Amino acid sequence: MSVLLNQKLFQSAMVRPGPGAGVIQALAPMIGGLFRLETDPGGQSYDEALAARVADPLWMLARQWQFREFDGEDAGSPLEVRYRLQGTPLLGLAPGTDPADDRFTALAGLPLEPWVEAEPVLASATGHARANIEAGRWLLRLMDDAGVDGAPAVQQAYPAAVALPQDPLSDPAGTLWHLVLGSAGLDAARLAADARPLRDADGVLVALPATLIAAGLGDTLRPVLEDWLRWMDDFIFEQPNAAWSPQRQEYAFELAAGRDTGQRWRLDAQEYVDGRIDWHDFDLRPAAATLQPGDAGRLDDTEDRRSFATPVQYPGMPASRYWEFEDAAVNFARIEAGSLDLVRMMVAEYALVHGNDWYLVPARVQAGALYRVDHLQVTDTFGQVTTVEPLSREAGAWRLHGLSRPDQPGLGADGDWLFVPPPLSDTLEGSPLEQVAFVRDEMANLAWAIEKRVQGSSGEPLDRGLEEQRHPARQQPTLAGTDARLLYRLMTPVASHWLPLLPSRQRGARGLDIDLERAAMKRFYRVDAAARDGDPEYRAFLDHLEQVAAQGGFVERLASSDPDLVIYAFHPRGLILRADPQVPVTADVLRLAEEELSRSGFIVERRFQYARAADGRALLWVGRRKRIGRGEAASGLRFDLGLRPAPA
After folding, report:
1. 3-class SS letters over 576-620
2. Closest CA relative to residue 35, chosen from 76, 62, 7
3. Cα–Cα distances in Å, from 390 out to 304, 360, 374, 377?
4. Contact of 576 with 434, CB cutoff 8 Å
5. Residue 448 in contact with residue 635, Cβ under 8 Å?
6. What is the spatial distance between Cα 612 and Cα 427, in angstroms, rounded to a whole number?
7. Which residues pair with 455 in a beta bridge?
8. pTM of the model
9. DSSP state of 613
10. Where on the tree of life does the source sit, at the highest rank (predicted)?
């Protein structure tokens, strides 16, 4: 630190007494000119300054006594931990709730998420046309790199194209890919389906498909096609999607685990929706010995493991001592909790009172198995060895970790097991291919399923709101003029991508329990000559609806007793609102459990997922996510209205 002093600071005045009035005389400064004051330490160290001596240390000791920092508990800190683990491997996976024993299949070392979430993409009629053609173009690149001729013949044998959308302006992505790819695509899914049965047990392609042989292609294509099939096996991971429950819009599946030949357990996951499978998604219950019969083996430790216990720490953790500086980013004093906010008060209680009582002991285990602690001994700082016993069952059913038991305890399994799922890297998610919002509408006394996005002709998402703007569902043409003061409307129109969910009594139920059944919104249109000829846009709209209905799309034409009136029903275009995509949409019936749709609603999306397994294998699949909604919605549906006519 330096200080600059100016000469004016030292000017002063002195009053000299004398007979009569005093004489004021200015005095010259004692120090003339400018100068600088600088520190000049007298020693070679800073020990005295860093000691920060205080004048009253007893006050600080009193404050420590006041905060009970001198209370001795005669407890030593844990140093060394000796323990053993018991391990039970997974045996298989089966979709659905309470599946039969013969439905379980081996996992083959893959993570659980692709097995549970994956659904048909290229192998489905409603798959992804652009991805199918791009996979076929990869074969053409391999043929070009290997110097194999015949690319036009392969394309002619397995042609594919992105169809032009019925309304190009409503599906800009489909229109773009139709123009880019044209009709010179290669149907990769159909070619792979014909070639895979021709491979032997080692994956060697022993012959070409008959279609390629008829096209005049020779044996030089066989090694290239064999390499391409191996690439196709890892391109997109596809499954039948049997784990998805349309009635609850959630995944439901079970895992099988066992020890030796006599003990078998089932791990139930009936409400998996968040994209990351972990131990808390499961319940544990015993199973019959016929579940995956055979010797399941063990993953038990044969010798004691030795490790060190470290205190559990987390960001924003309160200081363990009064005089320790805390992180200013977390202010526990500002936690606001009401009398019923039990979870928030429990978190604050843990952080402030019991936050420094937990220790962590790391354990390296093989993923994809159940584990529990066989025995645990702790050596503290005083050299005392303490055997830690598990929490007794009489203390309650709650556990910090472990699988809950829906049945009674003591029937062959307990809640001390902890499931370690196969690891998966952080998942990269694409843009939603399909998005549906399930909401309640109190003003209309209805529930709705709003299709916001669906897949277009290329497989890329299509905004159904844009489609509705392009083709408004007008139930009657605008009248030229009227002298009526009020116009009667039987019902106000609702957008075509708002599908009603009507209450329906549960099948076989005798009480008042209901489900929400997906329905179609009927709309009535005039088709007389005066209505069609009076408005060219209205006539084009009717022709478009007739074309979609004739192609078996999401629009269905219903019978009408009035020749001047046509009735159309609008059904869902996507897959989320389908109970069985294999049947026509007009015959498909979807029933949603009424308790699943709360006032906040929920949103379901279909996306591409990309991740890597522990062995480095890249996995690409299409899965679904379910998240909380944003509350109620207003469709504007009203009945029996009197409206003022529009001004001429």
Report:
1. CCCCCCCCCCCCCCCEEEHHHCCCCCEEEEEEEEEEEECCCCEEE
2. 7
3. 17, 16, 9, 12
4. yes
5. yes
6. 8
7. 461
8. 0.80
9. B
10. Bacteria
Calculate the alpha carbon distances from 418 to 144, 317, 360, 368 in Å. 52, 26, 16, 11
Identity of the residue numbered 91:
L
Compute how many other C-beta atoms are within 10 angstroms of the C-beta atom of residue 145.
Answer: 9
Task: Name which of 439, 443, 389 is nearest 416 in CA terms.
Answer: 389
User: What's the pLDDT at 354?
Assistant: 73
Of 423, 317, 436, which Cα lies nearest the Cα of 367?
423
Token pair belonging to 552: 């078996």
Residue 407: per-residue pLDDT: 65
Q: Report the SS3 class of residue 264.
A: strand
| Measured distance CA(535)–CA(129) in Å, rounded | 37
Return the closest-CA partner of residue 620 out of 630, 607, 631, 611.
611
pLDDT of 76: 81
d(CA 7, CA 31): 8
What is the three-class DSSP state of 548? helix
Residue 13: the pLDDT is: 42
Rounded CA separation 400/409 (Å): 17
How far apart CA 40 and CA 42 sit, in angstroms, is 6
**What count of residues does the chain have?**
648
Lookup: tokens for 602: 């929920």
Distance, in Å, from the CA atom of 262 to the CA atom of 373, rounded to the nearest integer, reads 21
Specify the 3-state DSSP secondary structure of 189. Answer: helix
State the chain's maximal CA–CA distance in angstroms.
139
What does the alpha-carbon distance between residue 470 and residue 475 come to, in Å, rounded to a whole number? 15
Find where tokens 């980013």 sit: 329
Residues paired with 359 in a beta bridge: 311
Which element (helix H / strand E) includes 229? helix 221-233
Evaluate whether 154 touches 228 at the Cβ level (below 8 Å). no
- Rounded to the nearest 10 degrees, how much is the dihedral formed by the CA atoms of 80, 82, 83, 84? 140
Among 452, 444, 438, 436, CA closest to 599? 438
Q: CA distances (Å), 102 to each of 96, 205, 256, 292, 357, in order?
A: 13, 32, 11, 8, 47
What Å distances lie between residue 126 and 323, 426, 512, CA to CA? 66, 28, 37
For 121-220, where are the alpha helices, taking DSSP H only? 129-146, 151-157, 172-181, 188-195, 210-214
Q: Is 626 helix (H, G, I), strand (E, B) or coil?
A: strand
Amino acid 145: pLDDT: 93
pLDDT lower than 50: segments of the chain? 1-16, 21-22, 411-412, 473, 475-477
Q: What are phi and psi of 268, to 5 degrees?
A: -90, 130
Placement of tokens 């070392």 in the chain: 109
The CA distances from residue 6 to 2, 14, 26, 260, in Å, are 13, 20, 17, 93
Query: Given this model, what pLDDT does residue 345 score?
Result: 84
Q: pLDDT per residue over 7-58, tens digit each?
A: 343 344 444 455 554 455 555 555 555 666 666 656 677 777 777 777 888 8
Q: Closest Cα partner for 121 from 174, 189, 173?
A: 189
117 and 285 Cβ atoms separated by less than 8 Å:
no
Per DSSP, which regions of 444-531 are E strands? Answer: 446-455, 461-463, 487-491, 498-505, 514-518, 521-526
Q: Convert the pLDDT of each residue in 328-386 to its tens digit.
A: 777 777 788 887 888 888 888 877 777 777 889 999 999 989 998 989 999 998 889 99
Other beta carbons within 10 angstroms of residue 213's beta carbon come to: 14
Contact at 8 Å (CB) between 450 and 154? no
